[in-house]
Amino acid sequence: MTLPGGAMLIGEPCAGDLHAQRAALSVLMARFGWPETARNALGQPVLPVGYCSLSHGGGWVTAAKGEAPIGIDVEAAGQRLENARRRFAGPADQPVLDHFGDSLDTLCRLWTAKEAVFKVFGTGVDFLTGLEWAEVNDTMARVKAVAQHVDLDLSWHRLRDPHAWMAVATVGR
After folding, report:
1. Model confidence over 11-26: pLDDT tens digits?
2. Could you say which of 3.90.470.20, 1.10.443.10, 2.60.120.620, 2.60.40.1180 is the CATH number of the domain covering 4-171?
3. Cut 0.85: pTM above it
4. Do 51 and 68 meet the contact criterion of CB atoms below 8 Å apart?
């Protein structure tokens, strides 16, 4: 899938433990001709040219790459998000809760969005207060990373078989 700004996104369902998911991610990237990634000092995956982000969870493996910083996260809605809610969902997230309603699906959207934004920077995003929601609709949002003073475009994608949410964050244009 090609995203706005020419970024590329690949993904597929993947069962198994963390080791199996990481192996599947490497196979997926090789199948699409993507180069192997290295890690920078922050632990972020890096390509020889451009930017990339990797994620596995919710029964999926996903990868995104582009010419500008990009972050991706995938997760299934589940009780563990409700259990962790107080650590990542706060008053600043009311625009998202108002738009989608207070549900596990909404918590999953919030979690994946915040993880994707965090991956753009590699550090410095407070999960409770680190985003200002400027615009929210069914498939996308405009957010500001507070500490970095950077606007980002965020898109949400519902994945099926198994059901999960994926968020992709890119530096705003």
Report:
1. 999 989 999 999 999 9
2. 3.90.470.20
3. yes
4. yes
